[in-house]
Amino acid sequence: MSTTEPVRPGRAQWGALILFAGASGAVDVLAFTALGEVFAGVMTGNLVLLGLSLTGTGHEGGPAAPLLALGGYVAGVAGVVPFARRRAAEPETRWPRAVVRCLAVEVVLLAAVAAGWGAADGAPAQPWLDVVLVAVSAAMGMQSAALAGAGAAGGPGTYFTGTLTQVVAHAVGPPGGQRADLGSLARLVALTGGAAVSAVVNAASTPWAMVVPLALALAALACVAVTPRQGRTAPHTL
Predict the structure, then answer these.
(1) Which of 22, 105, 162, 229 has minimal CB crowding within 10 Å?
(2) Per-residue pLDDT tens for 119-137?
(3) Burial (0-12, 13-18, 19+ Cβ within 10 Å), 183
């Protein structure tokens, strides 16, 4: 029987995962409240909204917004997957440089969206509103695909139903079983917190709303871009 310790995210990676979760919540709130009542990162929800819109009894905007979000997300994933790969010499305890570069491109895209959103005073006219929806959905697709490419030292990028299921299952599991790690719980809290902060900023000063996900994603990128890439595995809990 192998006694090799499972690969876990290090402290820097956990910090980045938590911050990226916050960025995901922040983007989804803005997509839902300002970009057509759809989601930028939760494609299951968009597929449901698409089905509802096709019946003519639900989503007021019709299928356009769900389709744009789905298209942007798919494009983001497709653009990252061929590049977010680990080289043989790179340790499994750290994110591959290719993953970090893909996340940097995501941050640049969010920065462009934030700049354009601010320049339009938080109220871009059509078709620019649709362009923003596609752009932020593409950014979330890039984030999700890049973090998946990080392997066991990564984690979910935009969808957290599985994380919630795991936390609850470990909490109510048999005594002596595997316990839920604090990092997973922190991601769920960050997702909610990022959404709340984004909603508050959007209500108080709409032109600055897109800065919230940008700031969170930039801080997440800094965690893994400036931390020395050591080979030591940090504990799984925070």
Answers:
(1) 162
(2) 999 999 989 999 999 999 9
(3) buried
